[in-house]
Amino acid sequence: MANTNEEQDQEFENFLKTLGDFIREKRKSRGHKSAETFANSIDMDEGQLRKYERGEIPMTLKTLHKIFKGLREGSENIVEQLANLSEPLIEKSDKPLSTEQIIHVKNQVKKLNGNEILITLRDEDIQRLGKILIVGFTTVPKNIFVQKVGLLSRSKNFNIVFSIALKNNWIAMLYPESPRRHDQKYYTTEAGKKVLRLGKAE
C-alpha cells in the first residue's frame, strides 16, 4: 500500500508540475513575459503565482478559475484543457528512442537550431537528448541528468545536448529567476514531451 501511495503522490506531483508548466507557457503566450505583470493583473501575490507555476503547491478550483479567466480562457475550455494535461504522453522508461523518434528529434533540431548544429550531432547524441527529456518527466537536479545520460557534467557531449534542450525550451529551470541557485532543478516542458510524443506517433 505504501508503494501505491508513493506512486499516487508522485503522479500528483507530476500533474502539478505539468499544470504549472501549462500556466506559465499560456501566460507568456498572452503577452505577460513576467510573472509579476500577470499576478498584478489578476490581483494575486507574485510569489504565490510562481509557486503554482513551479508546481510546488496545489491550488483550489476557485484559484484555477481565476488564473484561467486572467488568461482569457473561457470556462467551457477549462475542463477540456485540463483533460488534455492528464493525457498520457509517453511512458517513462530506459528504452532507447525508436528510429521514428530519432528522425523526429533530428527534424526538430534542424528546424529550431539549424542544419549546422544538426550535422554536428551523432545518433548517440540524439539518444542522449531523448534520455534527458525522459529523465525530466520528474523534476530533478542537473547531476541526475548527468548520471542517467552516463557522461560527466564537464563533458562537452553532455553540455551540448543539455544546452540544446534548454535553448529549445524542451527542459526548463524550476527557478528561472535564480539560474545559479544551488538547489536548481530542471523538468521537461510540454514542448519537450510533445517532441517525444510526436516521434512515437509517426
Helix coverage percent: 55-70%
CATH class designation of the largest domain: Mainly Alpha
C-alpha Rg, in Å? Answer: 18 Å
Q: Which band does the percent of strand residues land in?
A: under 5%
Task: Outline the low-pLDDT stretches.
Answer: 88-92
The termini sit apart by: 38 Å
Helix/strand order: HHHHHHHHHHEEH
Number of domains: 2
Envelope shape = globular
Question: Mind describing the biggest β-sheet?
Answer: 2 strands, antiparallel
Instruction: Please state how the strands of the largest beta sheet are arranged side by side.
Output: 1-2
How do the strands and helices of this protein lay out in sequence?
Layout: H1 2-29, H2 35-41, H3 46-54, H4 61-70, H5 75-85, H6 99-113, H7 115-118, H8 123-135, H9 142-149, H10 156-167, E1 171-173, E2 186-188, H11 190-201
Antiparallel strand pairs: 1-2
Helix pairs in contact: 1-3, 6-11, 8-9, 8-10
Summary of the model, kept short:
With 202 residues, the protein is an all-alpha fold. The protein is 64% helix and 3% strand.
Describe the structure.
By secondary structure, this protein is mostly helical. The protein is 64% helix and 3% strand. It is built from 11 helices and 2 strands, in the order ααααααααααββα. Helix 6 (99-113) crosses helix 11 and helix 8 crosses helix 10 (156-167). The longest helix is centred in the first third of the chain and has 28 residues, at 2-29.
